[in-house]
Amino acid sequence: MDARREFHIPPAMQGLALETALKRLLRDQSWSQVRALIAGRFIKLNGALAIDQMRRITPGDLIERLTHAQPPPPGDSDVQIVHRDEHLVIVEKPAGMISLRRPEEQAWDEAKKQAAPALEESVARLVQRRVYDVHRLDRDTSGLMLFALSTAAKTALIEMFKKHAIDRRYRAMVHGHPGEMQFDTWLVRDRGDGLRGSLPAGMTRAVLERRQAERAITAITPITRMGPYSIVECRLATGRTHQIRIHLAEAGFKLCGERVYTHSLRQTPQADTSGAPRQALHSWRLKMIHPVNQSPLEFESDWPADLKAWLGTLGLLERFSV
Questions:
Q1: Beta strand spans in the chain (E)
Q2: Is the C or the N end of the chain the one with fewer CB within 10 Å?
Q3: pLDDT tens-place string over residues 211-268
């Protein structure tokens, strides 16, 4: 089997289809071999399995050519419902499943959708009702996630997220030993190297608007240390794309298992020696007032099996769990 290979996409490949980019990068492979790699689950894009050969890539994307085919993705049976009522449902999302399907994937046939399942569709099948998304988790982030089941709950929940009235907490294993920290930055889609990231402090309002920057606020609390790593709790005041991963990496405390956000702009990528099976980020707590009946709701989620097994190899599991 060929050795594992990584490629960071340069600006010249902006907008290419995945199969076209791979053909240029893997010059020793024929078109049929490139397509077989994608169909055979040997390709990852930004840390997630890539099965759509026509997926458009952007500068800064990370393409990985794996040595072994990835296992089948999680399905409906891997999604656990922890609360359901007339207006909302709370589930435990498995790692490896996207939260919501991208618009360009809506036209996929059922076989292709089953090969890359979306949590929103899985939950709709499980509850046999239409569900409404109000937030999301990254594909490789596990844990508690909320969907509305009524338009009244959807409207109220969206407003609650805007007002930061929902207490969401994550647990993460990171490189290094961060102290109590609070990040308050403006995130953009391209910080200068094709990756999402924070703008330098002191940007004018005009620059923020031109760059379509979004304010992102994350609070970090250290929990415990294990050798060169730490478990931290992350509390979100905003819900920007990848904000926890970005903030930690920019501060020099990247997630164990992180493949995309490994360093701040103009710094050397930080090596990952942790052996984590994926990004070690888990949505462990959700606390809120019910958007319709006003009852208090609070749920907690322990580490999932893959992270439990990994933490056990580090000697951490017996010392720390939910």
A1: 5-8, 43-45, 48-49, 62-65, 80-84, 88-93, 132-133, 142-148, 167-175, 181-188, 197-198, 214-226, 229-236, 281-289, 296-300
A2: N
A3: 999 999 999 999 999 889 999 999 998 889 899 999 999 999 999 999 889 888 777 7
